């Protein structure tokens, strides 16, 4: 029953995200970033309020869907991320954007690590309800900061309407023309945009799918980890956000961004290969150590995509990225869990092996794109 309700709640949020992420993200290009940030935080706060009511009053499980729908209508987590990344793109130049985006990615890892530690200990000591008060307080504090302290980076258009098909058309224009007129240079940008989107999709799908399986893999034979080792393993996963940020900082003066992606891919592939054959605790932690730079890829992809879009299209661009990430969650959860169950009888690490092989696709694209497009650019001149 828990699995069924988790699926229903996830599908409810995902379905609304497919509609609202492109709409709200593109709207932020004309209405400003602050309204989107405020709306998404309020929506997350309303979801926490509904969850608290359901738990305190012991209401039927169906009422959880009310909170999920309210959150989905306000854009949910993906719109919040799209607005944050758009805001960073607005206030940064091309040279510093990758590192600033990486700082945001690192914040996700640090917050995930802290929430796991705080939530787990709090739940063990006081039950499952009280931690949701912290969730509510954080969302309200974030909304208050946006309303009173955060400056706007976009000149708002008072006549901009939220519910307009124009916002979807602006995203289609960005993806179909590369944000430029339909000429040779526009086609050049469009191809790069789609190739980087494909790389981002594969990398994020592999990351989400692998993360879903780590605990199952560690609980099963021959590792048979207990809660302590699983907690340390989870901390090691989130530590990669910080080490990848430091790695980007060290690599920036001497490597171009494409090489940074390849370093991250090598780190990720090597770690997944070790995980696929890990039969002892030492080997498993060796995989975590080798993977400490695998989070260098997504900030570079976000930065590359941002640089291909016009400054007036950053909201539409990151809304598209948020849409792709929502699809990644759906694909990764279904495929990785199904593949793990189907191959468990002959190799419990087979899914990690397949993920490592899949990452060769973005590696080939990134390795070939710079040379191909330099040649194409010279021909255009």
From TrEMBL:
Major site of localization recorded for this protein: membrane
GO cellular component: apical plasma membrane; basolateral plasma membrane; endosome membrane
Coiled coil (UniProt feature): none
Intracellular or extracellular location(s): Apical cell membrane; Basolateral cell membrane; Cytoplasm; Endosome membrane
Molecular function via GO: folic acid binding; symporter activity
Keywords, ordered alphabetically: Cell membrane, Cytoplasm, Disulfide bond, Endosome, Folate-binding, Glycoprotein, Membrane, Symport, Transmembrane, Transmembrane helix, Transport
Cross-referenced InterPro entries: MFS, MFS_trans_sf
Membrane-protein topology: Multi-pass membrane protein
TM annotation in the entry: 6-24, 36-57, 63-89, 101-120, 132-150, 193-217, 229-248, 260-278, 284-303, 315-335, 350-373
Catalytic activity: (6S)-5-methyl-5,6,7,8-tetrahydrofolate(in) + H(+)(in) = (6S)-5-methyl-5,6,7,8-tetrahydrofolate(out) + H(+)(out); folate(in) + H(+)(in) = folate(out) + H(+)(out); methotrexate(in) + H(+)(in) = methotrexate(out) + H(+)(out); pemetrexed(in) + H(+)(in) = pemetrexed(out) + H(+)(out)
PANTHER family per the UniProt record, alphabetical: PROTON-COUPLED FOLATE TRANSPORTER (PTHR23507:SF2), ZGC:174356 (PTHR23507)
Recorded family membership: Belongs to the major facilitator superfamily. SLC46A family.
Official protein name in the record: Proton-coupled folate transporter
């Amino acid at each position: 029953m828990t699995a069924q309700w988790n699926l229903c709640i996830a599908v409810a949020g995902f379905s609304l995200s497919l509609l609202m992420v492109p709409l709200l993200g593109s709207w932020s290009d004309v209405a400003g970033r602050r309204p989107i940030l405020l709306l998404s935080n309020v929506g997350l706060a309303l979801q926490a309020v509904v969850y608290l009511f359901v738990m305190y009053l012991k209401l039927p499980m169906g009422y959880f869907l009310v909170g999920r729908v309210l959150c989905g209508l306000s854009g949910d987590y993906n719109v919040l991320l799209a607005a944050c990344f758009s805001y960073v793109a607005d206030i940064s130049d091309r040279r510093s954007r990758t590192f600033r985006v990486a700082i945001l990615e690192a914040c996700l890892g640090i917050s995930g690590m802290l929430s796991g530690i705080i939530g787990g200990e709090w739940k063990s000591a006081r039950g499952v309800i009280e931690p949701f008060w912290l969730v509510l307080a954080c969302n309200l504090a974030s909304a208050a900061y946006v309303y009173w302290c955060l400056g706007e980076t976009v000149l708002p258009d008072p006549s901009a309407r939220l519910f307009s098909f124009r916002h979807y058309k602006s995203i289609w224009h960005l993806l179909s023309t590369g944000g430029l007129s339909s000429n040779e240079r526009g086609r050049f940008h469009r191809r790069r945009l789609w190739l980087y989107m494909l790389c981002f999709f594969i990398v994020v799908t592999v990351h989400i799918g692998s993360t879903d399986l780590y605990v199952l893999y560690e609980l099963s034979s021959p590792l048979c980890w207990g809660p302590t080792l699983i907690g340390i393993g989870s901390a090691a996963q989130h530590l990669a956000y910080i080490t990848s940020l430091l790695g980007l900082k060290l690599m920036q003066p001497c490597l171009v961004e494409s090489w940074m992606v390849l370093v991250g891919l090598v780190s990720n592939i090597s770690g997944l290969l070790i995980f696929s054959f890990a039969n002892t605790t030492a080997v498993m932690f060796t995989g975590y150590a080798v993977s400490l730079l695998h989070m260098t890829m997504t900030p570079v992809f976000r930065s590359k995509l941002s640089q291909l879009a016009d400054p007036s299209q950053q909201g539409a661009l990151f809304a598209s990225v948020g849409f792709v990430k929502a699809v990644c969650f759906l694909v990764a959860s279904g495929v990785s869990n199904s593949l793990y169950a189907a191959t468990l009888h002959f190799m419990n690490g087979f899914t990690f092996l397949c993920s490592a092989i899949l990452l060769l696709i973005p590696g080939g694209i990134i390795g070939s794109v710079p040379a191909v497009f330099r040649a194409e650019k010279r021909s255009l001149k």
